Amino acid sequence: DTAVSQTPKYLVTQMGNDKSIKCEQNLGHDTMYWYKQDSKKFLKIMFSYNNKELIINETVPNRFSPKSPDKAHLNLHINSLELGDSAVYFCASSRGAHDYGYTFGSGTRLTVV
Amino acid sequence: DAKTTQPNSMESNEEEPVHLPCNHSTISGTDYIHWYRQLPSQGPEYVIHGLTSNVNNRMASLAIAEDRKSSTLILHRATLRDAAVYYCILWTSNKLTFGGGTRVLVKP
Hints:
The structure holds two protein chains of two kinds. By secondary structure, chain A is mainly beta. Chain A contains no helices and eleven strands. The radius of gyration of chain A is 13 Å and the shape is globular. The relative contact order of chain A is 0.33. By secondary structure, chain B is mainly beta. Chain B is globular, with a radius of gyration of 13 Å. The relative contact order of chain B is 0.35. In chain B, strands 1, 3, 4, 8, 9 and 10 form a six-stranded mixed beta sheet that branches. A four-stranded antiparallel beta sheet of chain B has the order 2-7-6-5, with no helix packed on it. The model of chain B has no long low-confidence stretch (mean pLDDT 93).
């Protein structure tokens, strides 16, 4: 059983399109995150949700909209895709406190052409 | 955000210990020190974390300096599967903020 699963694994789309990436965790964790890893391999946090409430929004363009229908799911919707959105997006979850590790998904490679 | 400094890369021989240093001179009293690693084409994987005392688990050991301004991740016997980028991170402001990490190469 995969602990944090993301779909799709690969996504190729044209500029201007709208796309979504889904994330689900079966660990019973309270907090979920989206991270972006660019071509230089830096991992940057985008959003964090705790029990369906947004707690971190790291100056991400408002074309990116996270949605958490319940605490086991955190989806990422991206409007009007741009070339610079090409990256690997990782979902993660944790128990929400500082003394627990994060569990990451295997990533979604988004390519905008 | 509190920052960490790590060497860009390190090499090790298989079955030898690896000591990965990390400086975090601006750490505050409530910041936890976390280590993650990322194998090629995979998501980051939790390795270990601590606050003040040294910590051991099945993957590694974490040695924390008494003033907490530096720490060392110790892989006791490196295997080829340990080749990865290792990130030293301070958990602060409700989040993990990744730096550049150390790329570990393991030679057979």
